[in-house]
Write a structure and sequence with these properties.
The chain has helices spanning about 1-35, 35-40, 40-60, 65-85, 90-120, 125-155, 155-175, 190-195, 200-220, 220-230, 235-260, 265-285, 290-305, 305-315, 320-350, 355-380, 385-400. The protein is mainly alpha-helical and about 400 residues long. Helix 1 runs antiparallel to helix 7, helix 9 packs parallel to helix 15 (about 320-350) and helix 9 (about 200-220) runs antiparallel to helix 16. It is a multi-pass membrane protein.
Amino acid sequence: MPLALLALAIGAFGIGTTEFVIMGLLPEVAADFGVSIPTAGFLVTGYALGVMFGAPLMTVLGTRVPRKRMLMLLMGLFIVGNLLSAVAPAFAVLLIGRVVASLAHGAFFGIGSVVAADLVAPDKKAGAIAMMFTGLTVANVVGVPLGTLVGQHIGWRVTFGIVAALGVVGLAGIARLVPELPRARGVRLRHELAAFKNAQVLLAMAMTVLGFGGVFAAITYIAPMATHVTGFADGSVTWLLVLFGLGMVGGNLVGGRYADRALMPMLYVSLGALAVVLALFTVTAHHKALAAVTIVLIGALGFATVPPLQKRVLDQAHGAPTLASAVNIGAFNLGNALSAWLGGLVIAAGLGYTAPNWVGAALAAAALVLAVVSSALERRDGVPGTVVAAGAAAQRAAAHH
């Protein structure tokens, strides 16, 4: 069981590296192709939109494919996309390569979340999901900084070549270590689609869009903000991304631990604190030490929401969670795309490189409001999340037998 979760984490490491490394390389890519920083930001937006649309598309296409085999196919697609990015002769081709790689992202994490949850006891599910996402967070401590360093000193194309090689390692790990889990009998696409009639599923996805969107509003433009506002040297961006990654690792593990105990309170605290910290970043961005601390907190508070939100979707999806799980991963990236676009707008409007922080604070605050509304509706209907989770678990157990 631990080895299977390790294999999923390896795949997540490769995907996390390619998703986040572009943020540290925006200046290099923009200079290479002769485009502006906001235009280069479309590499973030395009990837995020690809995840958003690719998550349900690839999951639906893989409905009849065993989950292990589908995970392997998705890693193959990821490898192709990154190879295309590495050899892109024009900005448009690089954008296409990013989108191709992104098509694997949502379905991988969506299906991987279901597999991880099925490997453990019901009261350990959020922790198992967090373990898989540890690969994504560790990528921000190891993969992204090293990829940024390589991109700045050797070339961003080499970075994408290395990421493709990481995909090969992830593919081998899944083939070797992930077991063939039986699919629930009698579950069809219509059962997966029925989850979207549940208002709590939709609210959780909306919280996902807004909450993690708040993180990306600030982090997408961390390189120009750090160099032009804070006064860091270009090479310091690598270490700032390490700090962001360390925050993500800690926040992910804490979020996974406490989501199995008190899911909604965990969301209240993390979303509320995230909104405050993002607002403060407009001030702390002018001071090196304070900016570094703030970046750690943004990573920690942002990723503390990931395991509880993913688990909430699984709990509320009533025995057919695969598509809803994948779509929620797409929701994370819809938030990324929305916030990267909004952040680019406020920068292009002349409001400065710290303006995206206000956008992020507003998005996180809106997510907190939705969390309060979700709990209020749950209390009104008299169906606590733990009851729903237990019912869903019972349905899955019955389906397996």
